[in-house]
Amino acid sequence: MRVVIADDHALLREGLRGLLQARGIDVVGLAENGREAVGLAAEHKPDVVLMDLSMPVMGGLAATRLIVSDVPDVKVVVLTASEDEADLFEAIKSGAQGYLLKDLKPDELFRMLEGVQRGEPALTPTLARKVLGEFARPSGTRHERASDELTEREREVLELLVSGVTSNKDLAERLIVTENTIKYHLRNILDKLHVKNRAQVIAYAMQHRLVPLDPPS
User: Fold this and answer.
1) CA 158, chain centre distance (Å)
2) pTM exceeding 0.90
3) Has residue 141 got a pLDDT over 80?
């Protein structure tokens, strides 16, 4: 895995780089503000950018939006001290693949990063519940047209995602198909709903009532 770290605190950047490198993760760039993070993402095309929110010159949310737009294959995971729910919701809306707090234990961070490589959202259960609670509120439209475009199998995948089954392996086991088949269905869902990652898929589905609010286990 290749990673860029964006944080305006030098000690945190260096400490995190050492932690990741000790685990065999290649840290290809360090940024002290959002503008540098955007440049490094475009230059190195890492697998993941670990993005702080509060930085000079350009903040993490603005940088996330630019990276997601300009280098869509690069996944952004917010790593922040902010427990503000508004920051959490805005990060997901901006295209972040996850939102992690800086007090996360190292083993949990590594587990989350491994999941991100598989396309899974990097959200702890507590933050995932907050996201689902926020986006479960009705929106002005139901987006029935987008829902109608989904096949029956895609809708099954979507219902499982909303119920908390987010890994390719678990989805494949539930639906008795291969992981490659799951990836194919997920790509179609992303394209049809015009969203960029699974975290946004779940939020969109809840907000626009594309699946039952209490999908079966």
Assistant:
1) 16
2) no
3) no
